[in-house]
Amino acid sequence: MPNTVFGLECIESNIYIGDRAGIIAITQLPLIFAFTARNNLFSVITGWPYRTFNIFHRWISRFVVVLIFLHAIFYYDSARRNGDYIQRWGLTKWRFAHVGILSGFILGITSVYPFRNKFYEAFKSCHQVFSILFIVGTWYHCVTLGWMEFLYVTIGLWGLDHMIRFFKIMVSGGVVAANCELIISKRDSFGSLSSEIAVGHTIKVTINHSGYWRHYPGCYVFVYFLKPNMFWQSHPFTTIEPSVVQAANQLVLLIRVKEGVTSQLSEFLLSQPEYKAKISVLVEGPYGSPIGFRGYQNAIFVAGGIGITVVYTLALDLARQHKAEILRGDAKASDRSVTLYWITPSIESIESSVDEIAAMSEIGCLNLKIFITRQHGFSLPHNRGIPSFIDLLSTKPEKNRLGGIQSATLEMCIPSFVQESGSKDSIVLDELSPLIYANMLYGEIGSFNDTPPFTQHREEQVKAATPSGKGSSRVSHTQEFSWAGTPPLTLLKPSDKLQLYHDILLENLPRVEIKWGVKPSMKTEIVENVGKLSGTTAVVACGPDRLNCDTRDGTIKAMRDSGNERIDYFEEKLLW
């Protein structure tokens, strides 16, 4: 019997398969947009983080792209067999089908990991533009065919998400001021220290919003920096609890300088006095679900680099709870333990987190172990006129917490400092001996007035230790030095943070340990640490993939060796 509808059986098969693929694809659109929304009802119900639903979004999207491809191929073949391919271009639904198909393919191609990772800003812009084109193309393709209810729901979810975003921005205060401070590292073109080339390392942003909501562990916000070259961009940043709460509405962000908007911010701050500026921003938040670590007797946090922003508040919150339990008599100090491992390549990370490190040292239930894996020297905060002091710290000084530094071997390049006329921030010294140079670098920083409170003993020590003869060239010294733990000569501009910075480096703060040039094996550290604990333990990692894998492997081995003790592993995602 002749086929009165399709003419040929192969065309009939093509239409059936093509329609089925297209219908299944359009039914998935609400899920694609729902799972990628920042304000996701499913996330509120389940407590699952945004990244979990983002994985769902990616895989459903890939599935839909394959279905669209099949839908297009079978319809192209049908048009070719019917001989009406050219005539179909006169149909609105045919033309807009091509808009939707091409937009979907571009979305799929630009979403692959290598492109997304290397050209994130381009990926994000393509996603925004071509998602709109895809919906427009699908709308006009289906408006005469049906299944519009799926598009109504999709557009409704998209609009609702953006309405809630706008509402959160208004609740946070609309346009608010952000105090931005750039922590710099000074490098030359070969990667060694240079006093002439400043490179942004970390941006510390302090924002006072409306105060209608409070920071909580696991909280993050999207920030729009209202500058002409970036105002349309928004990126998620983890908030950390202010070390000294000056107001209930204060947010603190630590942002590692990378490419894109952070690089543009860094370049702007480098041109500002003292690398500081006040920038108008929009704050969209809060986002993120509180993480329930309070049920654990012990916790081990592992942070890599800027990952400290994620685990800092979590560790601080748990340590405070443990301290309260101990003070109430509900637990013994020996039954509670919070340890934080922070592995960072450079000392600039410490400079950007001075207040936070001090806050952790004051809790009493939190032990902080910092590993600086690559020591390039450091720049003193807020001292643009003084170059960085160390080119290479060859070995870690052997320290005594009560007596200061007793002995050490230090290889350093000693510059000459030339006082500028009328400048109070520079110092008059020619070539310094290693003793005075290291004393100035590592010592306790006191106050500095117009008339420095130097004792006669200290003045004589300077004269005795300063070599005679003048010169301006850099000379290299390797010398063993030692001194008692008395306050050293004060030659630096007054700064409470500077004093705290040096206390951290000297390990003068309780429960803060620093190891130089050492990269720990977290597989071994986790096993050894868990072996000393009793009770339930949570292990939390936030860092590069390699660090997370090592921590996970160590946790698995600790689980096997722990017997009946419960050990849970959590892996947090660094947002930016």
Secondary structure topology:
Layout: H1 9-27, H2 29-36, H3 41-46, H4 50-82, H5 85-88, H6 92-110, H7 113-118, H8 120-142, H9 148-171, E1 175-187, E2 193-208, E3 220-225, E4 235-240, E5 250-256, H10 261-270, E6 276-287, E7 298-304, H11 308-328, E8 337-344, H12 348-352, H13 354-363, E9 366-372, E10 398-400, E11 404-414, H14 434-442, H15 456-465, E12 475-481, H16 496-505, E13 512-516, H17 522-531, E14 537-542, H18 545-561, E15 567-571
Parallel strand pairs: 7-8, 7-14, 8-9, 9-13, 14-15
Antiparallel strand pairs: 1-2, 1-6, 2-5, 3-4, 3-6, 4-5, 10-11, 11-12
Helix pairs in contact: 1-4, 2-4, 2-9, 4-6, 6-8, 11-13, 13-16, 17-18
Protein name: FAD-binding FR-type domain-containing protein
Subcellular location: Membrane
InterPro entries: FAD-bd_8, FAD-bd_FR_type, Fe3_Rdtase_TM_dom, Fe_red_NAD-bd_6, Ferric/Cupric_Reductase, FNR_nucleotide-bd
What's the total number of strands? 15
Biggest beta sheet attributes: 6 strands, antiparallel, barrel
Give the tally of structural domains: 4
The level of helicity is 40-55%
Membrane topology: Multi-pass membrane protein
Subcellular location: Membrane
Family: Belongs to the ferric reductase (FRE) family.
Pfam family, one: Ferric_reduct
